[in-house]
Amino acid sequence: xxxxxxxxxxxxxxxxTGGESLSGITQGDGSNLVGQFITIGNGPLTDLNVSDAGSDxxxxxxxxxxxxxxxxxxxxxxxxxxxxIEAEYSITLRDNSTGQTYxxxxxxxxxxxxxxxxxxxxxxxxxFPPRGVPLEVISSAEGPxxxxxxxxxxxxxxxxxxxxxxxxxxxxxxxxxxxxxSDLVLTRQHGPQPVRWIGRRRVAESELHANPKLYPVxxxxxxxxxxxxxxxxxISRQHRMLVRSSIAERMFGVPEVLVPAIKLxxxxxxxVDKTVQEVEYFHLLFDRHEIxxxxxxxxxxxxxxxxxxxxxxxxxxxEIFVLFPELKQTDVLPExxxxxxxxxxxxxxxxxxxxxxxxxxxxxxxxx
Length: 368
Description:
Structural class: mainly beta
Strand order of the largest sheet: 2-3-11-8-9-10-1-4-5
Number of helices: 5
Radius of gyration: 23 Å
Largest sheet: 9 strands, antiparallel
Order of helices and strands: EEEEEEEEEEEEEEEEHEEEHEEEEEHHH
Strand content: 25-35%
């Protein structure tokens, strides 16, 4: 028996030319889509929990063992625990501007007659196609895992982007990609603060392979202690997390310090995640360096120090300089939101936490 997650994009986030829809009538093989163009919207992927009573971890067609593990909502509809779920068909999308192709599965939650009559969303194999770009459907096939088509192991399905990270705002948790300049984000030291600038950068599979340092660090739920983060958190290697502990206070004379995510990888449940096929990084900039809350865990906003500014594009730097012209002056250094130890001190701090099995976030009052 295998339990796994299917990361699915809702049908409402997909537009198709020619008046077609993801649902087909020809044995659910997706042939009605060939020659049409599909444009993927900006909505987040939904994690659908699946339990497979069989011995495989493949997400396939015609597998009666694949069932929803618990009642779940998808695209505004709630489905009962145990509802059958399948990969009804496989289509190949092509970005005609680059020639790049993508394998996509039609996700069918069986709530119709015939059972293959609806396709509620899409799942993506290997890499995620660009959003907002018309992509041509160049082929379709029944399956996978049937009619001679090879099975698709669930580990090859593309997970949610870093862009799915929940940020605490005055109106509740918001996905980072949905935050706008008008939103007020909750900060640890200065209360609600408006976002002044938002940056984003998508890193494709080819770039990750060429530069492994671009792979994100995954912090599993609860790995920092006391339930933080509240969900898995995926961030860039140099993104700093707040450590608040008695160990930090003994070492540095202050209870709170900022440590890059890559320095946390000696902790159980924190590691460089090289299984991602693509990642999108977001930067939130405020009037000052702030501690904000990502998946409930205290984390830094964009720090506009010299090294941080080198890490973003020239165009992004110019946008920031328009907002904060004083940053062009080389003798003006921004004030960090917390003490930042040296690299050697950071390693020693984390080693002590591991040795003493102490949480990095030791006080419950860290939460909002």
